[in-house]
Amino acid sequence: MTVNLPEVAERHHVHIVNPCAGDGRYMDAIRKKAAKNGDDLIFTTAKGEAEKLCREIAAENPLAHLMIYGGDGTVHESINGIMNSGCADTVSFSVVSAGSGNDFAAYANKAAGYTSPKLHRLDVIRTGNGRYYINGLNMGFDTQVVIAADVYKHKRGLRGGTAYIAGVVKVLGKKPTFHADITLEGVRDFADGKGKNGFVSASDTFLLCDCANGPFCGGGFKGAPLCDMQDGYMDVLLVKDVTRRKFISLVKDYHDGTYILPDGTLDPRFDPYLDYYQCKKINIKTNTPYCLDGELQEGGEVTAEICHNAIWFAAL
Q: C-alpha dihedral over 314, 281, 161, 170, to 10 degrees?
């Protein structure tokens, strides 16, 4: 049965604001807007509260529109709240980029070309421990960079992509690797033919593994350039252990997303070092920690599976 859902303008808006977002420069404008429109305005007071608020608000008003103010961490909390509310089929959300990392919004608000303020159905990815993510799971080099970048943000005042690049430089000096046994299911066939049987397995030492729903990570690195949040696939990038010199020679193309063509053909310079897949499900057996939407998770076996058309989003 088809259900006609109200558009964004017809919904009751609830503004959920991380008070640290944008160094507080949004506060006066948000208060005025909420008061003018009769919207609800809620400020979070602790880590994890955005998830609780979104879950409770969505359950109470399944046709609410949640305005999320913050970065990727706040978005991560919010989509987990929505998905666990039981009302993801009806509630909707938008994101105001106001964090130190805004990779989800950089794509969904701009690069994806979603018509505003129309509602769009987006994929999310569910992990085996019951957590969801909407932008990316990063493991290995990228996770170590996130850890280092967090230090630069809090101790040296660097922000966004600047802190990430500083983290890259620091971690490159150590070049940590990890061993993993990886299986991919529901693999889409690319020009290289690696996905013809729908199943891929790999057991190797890796520099990084990205399981992405969105193309951007690290404040603007286009690490998974073929990502589409509506295609029912996650994009998986596996980078084998390479020398520092080789990594440095290739990092610009990794940043720009120019290492692969739209048909899945890798630039020949990358072919010995990278594998790029699109799949429905992945299982990774390793002890290394990982990040979900930039939020650090303990190491261990992790499974991730696409949830197609799982959540309603409106671009700004």
A: 170
